[in-house]
Specification:
about 425 residues; Growth Hormone, Chain: A; 15 helices; mainly alpha; about 85% helix
Length: about 425
Amino acid sequence: MTAVNQVDHSRQGSGTRALVLTVALSTAGSATALISATGITTAAGGLNRGALFSGLFLAASMAAGALALPFAPRAAHRFGTRQAVLGMWSIVAAAWIASGALVIAGAPPMWVVMIAAPVVGAGSAIAGVLSNIVYRAYLESADFSAVVARMTVWRGIGWGLGALVGGFFLNTGSEGIGLVAAGLVKIPLLIVLARHAPAHSLATPDRPKAPWHEIRGAFAESPTLRRTAVMGVSMALFAAPVMTLVVPIAQSLRHAPLYQGAGFLMVGFAIGELLSPQVVSKLPHGGRPLVNAARTGAIAGGFLIALGLVSGFFSFRTELGLWAVVAIGIGAFRFASRAFSQGSAAASRGLENAASSLAAAAFIAGIAGPIGVLGWSLALGSLGAEVTAALAGVALAIVSIGVFLRTRGEDVRA
């Protein structure tokens, strides 16, 4: 009996190690795909419409993700949570490989990535909202925020590597190869999910209600979930676009070579993502996670304001160096806020309803995502990157402080 248990424990440990490494590799693929795809759309739009074309690509992906999110609990119930994540990431990998192959074969690149956008967006959204539930079972942790923070380290490593690789493909004009590579590096994660069971078994969720009814019921039941959604929406509108529109932002600031400016920002965000678990661990965990989500969101807004000031008052290499520093701050506090927000959503109605609560919060943020990206894209063209970043930072700070004061006040009264 003991020998069998030891073998099982060894297999579970190797599965956990393989999981975190392949998550990093898969995230590297996502970063490479983002730079390659937005490089294609930016080139198609030229100097005047590059940001708008990139915004349309990202908006199409996010809109499809938002529409797909309500069906995440249903997918988890029907196929099992781990199998649903495996299936969705398989679809995303296949879409990137097929898109890259078509671009290499000479198909119009802009049309290829626009057609791929909703497929990738829907698959990534469902897999993303369910994946942390699966990772929690692998990592054997009861603290959902801690699980998100720990996986953020590996995602940060992957994001930094992917940014460098994506910058190489962008610089050499081989974005099609970059898309193929982005899909191929997701395959090891698929193998791990298929072959290694988590240390803790995943219970099949109860049969959910109709998707839209489930979302309405979740928000009606929990005021905490509603305020968590407010934080998610503010992040989607004001902070997230700066991390996805790096190529158009570098173009707006007229950096040459283009990949250098985009690469500095991406690597800075990745380093910040690596540091976000330190932010999570340093903040008090005795109260509700939403308090810390709002606190870190306000600080992220301050760093966005700093990004606008740096771009307005410095130039060339000094600006690039300061960009990297500010990007680290944005990444660290933005991802820390996301970890606390996901912990808040997961606990808002009990862990037995975690999948539906996370899907509800992500759905609302997903609706805001395309609006944020298109708003940033239009603002980059009319106001410039400096003013856009500063205004977004002010708005994020105001909303975050409001959520903090409201939630903290309730804790004090309780």
